[in-house]
Amino acid sequence: MKTEFHAVIKALSQHVIGKTDQLKLAVTCLLANGHLLIEDLPGMGKTTLSHALSDVFGMDFSRIQFTSDLLPSDMLGVNIFDTVQQQFQFRPGPVFSQLVLADEINRASPKTQSALLEAMEEQQVSIDGTTHPLPSPFFVIGTQNPGYQSGTYPLPESQLDRFLMRISLGYPSWEAEQSMLRAGSDRKTERQPALISPETLQHYQQAVAQVHCSDSVINYILRLVVHSRDEPGFPNPLSPRASKAILQSARAWALLHDRDYLVPEDVQAIFVAVTEHRLRSQQGEYADSDVLSQRLLDSVDPLAA
Amino acid sequence: MSALRLPIAGHIASMTLALVFLTVTLTLYSPLQLWVMLLALCAVLVRMALYAGWYNRAPSSRTINLLALLSGVTLAWFSTDLGLLLSMINLLAMACSLKLMLMTRRKDFLQLFASTLFLIGCGFIFSQSLVNTVMYLALLAVLLLALTALFSPGRSLTRQARSLAVSSAQALPIAIILFLLLPHLSPLWKMPTAKSSTTGLAESVTPGDIANLSQSDELVFNATFDSPLPMRQERYWRAITLEHFDGRTWSVSPTRKQIRNQYQLLNREFEPAASGRAFTYQVIAEATGQRWLYAIDIAQVTDQGRGNEIWQGADYQLIARRPLMSKMAYDVKSYPDVQLNQTLLTLDSRLNLQLPVKGNPATQRWVSQLRQRYPGDAAFIQQLLGYFVQEGFRYTLSPDPMPLNPVDAFLFDKQAGFCTHYASAMAYSLRLAGIPARIVTGYHGGEPIQENVLSVRQYDAHAWVEAIIDDRGWVRFDPTSVVSPARVSFGLQQALEENGDTLNSPFDGLYSMPLFGSVRLFLANTDYLWSRWVLGFDADMQQNLLQKLLGELTPRKLLLFFLAVVGGLALLLASYFLPRWQPNTRPEHYQVIDRAEQLLTKHTGIKRVNQPLHAYQQTLTPHLSPASCHALKTLVQDFEHIEYAGKAFSKARLKAMKRARRDLTKALRSSS
């Protein structure tokens, strides 16, 4: 792994203990310039992770707690009439941050959800005919409670795939939780100095596009995607957007591991995080423990000519 | 959606299978129990209901299990009466019926398909006639259509039929070659003897018995002559010699049976010497469930292969070692002019002077008077036969019953009867007169269905008398011929017409119509050809065929030939079923990796299941020696460089890869 990123992961591990894989995926997501969805029960460290990420990359951070009565304007900002200057003044909302934590995104009404997702996609906000660009880099971490919790509006499939990856932290191991308890108060008030500046991050984001991808890896991705479309048992086959996401994330993963070319292992490493939330039907099938993306990986040979 | 689950309503393949199954079950009416057939019918009705959509759910397996339990118990109850073979067939049909109700998956369909094929095979146990064969072939065709309908339901019937016809045409030559050329090995598994009823002549005869047989036009045997056909007067086909008389019934003498058993224990057999004029012919006998064979006196079995299966009795009788459960063909040479005086005549005389203790007093008196007047044997016999003519005896198939003292009643009261009445009366009278005599039952005559083929049917059944006359030994007397010469010269039909008597058959009128006659002859002929050339194709015929093909047969030549046939067929099938050889189009570095993968799989027993190479390498690491690990690592790295790194292709890398592969081979070899 590249030394800078090694340090990054190490720093993050001090906040979220024993979840190296998820942390690497989160950093990969950042590198790939995509948004991250964390799906977990309350209290698993979603917010901690977001804070830690913003610290490590020196990004300004804001948090939006989604509730059912949150309005789009509460999030995006409003034009307010300035009585002194006798004109409307734009008051930017919390979304105007480099790293936005959209907490419990599935508690908000669909209208608010779609406003956020639109901002994520366009990286700009239009209010009363004026377009306001969002800062760069712009990174949204959405967190969501599992759909079976009450009082939630599950994100529709068409909006779920705006998130490049979905990860789930899960319960920590015995040792991890033990050391966490020993360390005492975890949420440090003072910000740590940034290990990688936002500018360097952007530089790396551009470098991701330079990672070489051979035809055989592209074909491997295509075989995976086509398999989900041709074979029965996949309620939502993977779209071209998904295949682009796979390639982009795999490249970021390769860069993270200090390689300038792709191998099938890179695709496999990010595959579940990138595709599972796209493959899965949202209609209350969370209980289905079968991991669709893993099934896809198991049935396609990366070495087939 | 799962491809393995069959649709229920309107599924044509299942319905066709069900109907074929039902038809096959119906054709097996004789071996199957009525309740099994009813079960099959129920199963088909269930299928029909599902097909029509009255129900959309097959019966639950709990219901079927209960039914299976009940049926199993019932079958077990009956099985002691049925014997092994019939129980097994009933079990198969029962299991198929239950499965049919439960058929929901493709697997079930295929199982049922195979079982129905087996049932069709069972059908051939009970009859191999041409008609049956044609019927089963038709059923087979429909069954195969059901299979094609399962796999390509969208196709039209004509296209399915066409593809079926094409595959059958492809398979036919292979079947013919296998049939003609594959060695006929004796079966590993012999059919258990069925407890089916026997047909044809019985081991004991009460006058009147054979009359029942005369109503039947069932085929008994076909005889194919190499020489010209014998004269009608010579066509006395001996089957059973009856030497014991109890006043009513003639039966096989117990003493004779004992002698026969002793001979068989000692593995000795009566070998009559014979020479002179002879008929050479092959008999194809229909299944009777009995052991008697048919031949003209004096017969000698000529084919060596059958020598062990056919036994010659001291009463000039051919006996099969096993009951005829299916058709049996044997070659015989008969010497009609040789006298039957080669047995121990003293023993024969003693056996054949046996008389019932009491009964028939009128006959006893009459014979003793006659014997006093004619002390010479020849004269006595002359008078005896003359009596039948003088008194105007009639030949009839429907004689009045003669319950008490049958010989008395026949000779002095009714004076009308069938061949057994005459034979019985004559043989009894001869014995009373002190002349050893016995009854022979068999067949007389036969209809030429081809220039050199005689077809003998049950209505040709006949009984005649043999008596010992001096040193001439056993001499044949046929009292029936005296009474009704037409019976012997022209056959039963003619004899009855002359007497104004007919066979009691509604089709009698038909026999006189020329068209019907020729159709019947044609059918008989076809059936004969079928038995002669297809069913009768045994090891001997095969040997003849091979001799024609190969010249002189040496075991070495035969072995090579059979191997060549089997090998040729295997090659043919392999070229059809095995994947075509294709040039390996995979890039060279892939080929190196593939080879390494094969080696590793063979060595560690762990397959690469759609893993990338790194992951596979990590899986294998604990199972490999450090040297192998190192070689594998280098190999994988080189491969990644060539395949993924996007550098210009370098020969050096490929060479390094090949070297690493060789290292791996070496390391693996040294570690194992």
Automatic annotation (TrEMBL), chain A:
Residues 35-165 form the ATPase AAA-3 domain. Residues 238-283 form the ChlI/MoxR AAA lid domain. This is MoxR family ATPase. It comes from Alteromonas salexigens.
TrEMBL record, chain B:
It comes from the Bacteria. It holds the Pfam family Transglut_core. The keyword Acetylation does not apply. Residues 411-481 form the Transglutaminase-like domain. Keywords: Membrane, Transmembrane, Transmembrane helix. InterPro entries: Bact_TGase-like, Papain-like_cys_pep_sf, TgpA_N, Transglutaminase-like. The chain crosses the membrane at residues 12-29, 35-55, 62-78, 84-102, 109-127, 133-152, 164-185, 558-578. This is DUF3488 and transglutaminase-like domain-containing protein.
